[in-house]
Specification:
The protein has helices at 2-18, 34-49, 53-68, 70-77, 87-109, 180-187, 216-226, 228-232, 235-253, 274-283, 308-311, 313-318, 328-349; strands at residues 122-132, 136-139, 148-155, 164-169, 192-198, 264-269, 288-293. The protein has 350 residues and is an alpha/beta fold. Strands 2-1-3-5-4-6-7 form a 7-stranded mixed sheet, sandwiched between helices. A hairpin with a 3-residue loop joins strand 1 and strand 2 (136-139).
């Protein structure tokens, strides 16, 4: 969806300013309306898919296209015929047309690897919550501000592992979307898998405006890549935040339909969330059956960021890895995770 919307916006900008370079005779200029349309769609993309480098560049490029067409928009709204464009307008048109073409190529090269969970016998549900860690979370209404999103991946047939629930906690340099192929394949093995993204104001990670939902993953990814030592120095602080999130997820889960008093939880973590999982298990050992940290998996090359070789190849490139269509890292990580999970739950049953 994100790829399609970005390509669409870039094509609209290409048509909008490309028209300037192909003027042959006086005419009305309806294609100029593509400029405000592309800006509107680029603005929506910021909120729908959150900030990353491509979304940001496309948004600023749409502003340039809009501003460069300002006088053309006035002329068109007045019903005036266009017989020529100024040299300045032609320069802007040439520049934005070239940049739009380059961006289409780059976006296509770094497109996510196609993965269709619809082909698997699993279901994904998203539960939206409002509230905070201080006051507690409750299901969000139609007009509530959502501060938590609980993703449930469950097999169509839950009989095999009915009371065994997997809670996954993403590292904040990624979110649930960065791990989705792994989570879907884990659910395909018969387990109910939960992954929650929190955005409550009383659990801040950066202590700047970058804590906003739209900015946080991008901001922490940049810190992790370009200021890794400083990022890692915050481990103790991050552990405290992850502990609060684990406790909130456990509380939410007890209110879901599939939960029962016989339920056993297995925590799957990535990098920074592992220490918090250990603390939670030591605190409530009767509820938490086991833990596995996927950053220990041999083929998982981008710990803390998720499976970006499939979900975000541009970030993978910054980490020194190429786009991977084979899903070998995901499958290897899945195999090692399942080994830990099955060993734990089998020991309980026996």
């Amino acid at each position: 969806m994100k790829l399609s919307s970005e390509i669409l916006i870039l094509v609209l900008m290409l048509l909008s300013n490309g028209r300037v370079l192909t003027l042959r005779k006086p005419h009305l200029d309806p294609l100029v309306m593509l400029a405000p349309l592309s800006f509107f769609l680029a603005s929506l993309n910021l909120f729908a898919f959150r900030l990353d480098l491509f979304t940001l560049v496309i948004f600023f490029l749409s502003i340039v296209v809009l501003l460069s067409n300002f006088h053309a928009l006035i002329r068109y709204s007045s019903g005036l015929v266009i017989d020529r464009y100024s040299p300045l307008m032609k320069t802007w048109a040439w520049l934005t047309t070239v940049l739009s073409t380059i961006m289409i190529i780059i976006v296509f090269i770094f497109r996510p690897v196609s993965f269709s969970e619809k082909k698997l016998p699993i279901n994904e549900s998203i539960y939206k919550y409002t509230g905070s860690f201080t006051k507690g979370f409750e299901p969000a209404g139609n007009f509530s501000t959502c501060t938590a999103f609980l993703h449930q991946f469950s097999p169509e047939d839950t009989s095999a592992h009915k009371n065994n629930i997997i809670i996954f906690m993403p590292d904040k340099r990624g979110d649930t979307e960065n791990y989705k192929p792994f989570l879907c394949l884990l659910a395909n093995e018969g387990y109910t898998v939960l992954s929650t993204d929190f955005y409550s104001k009383d659990c801040r990670w950066i202590h700047t405006i970058e804590d906003a939902r739209m900015l946080r993953k991008f901001g922490l990814s940049l810190r992790g890549i370009y200021a890794e030592k400083k990022y890692n120095s915050q481990r103790e602080f991050y552990t405290y935040n992850f502990s609060r999130e684990f406790k909130a997820v456990l509380s939410m889960t007890k209110e879901l339909d599939f939960y029962s008093p016989e339920s056993h939880f297995f925590l799957v973590t990535d990098n920074m969330s592992y220490t918090a999982a250990l603390d939670i298990k030591n605190e409530i050992p009767d509820l938490i059956s086991g833990i596995y940290n996927i950053s220990n998996s041999t083929e998982y090359k981008t710990p803390g960021y998720g499976f970006v070789q499939q979900t975000d190849p541009f970030i993978a490139k910054q980490l020194g890895y190429k786009r991977d269509k084979t899903f070998e890292a995901v499958k290897s990580c899945l195999s090692e995770t399942l080994k830990a999970i099955n060993t734990t739950f089998n020991s309980i049953e026996n």
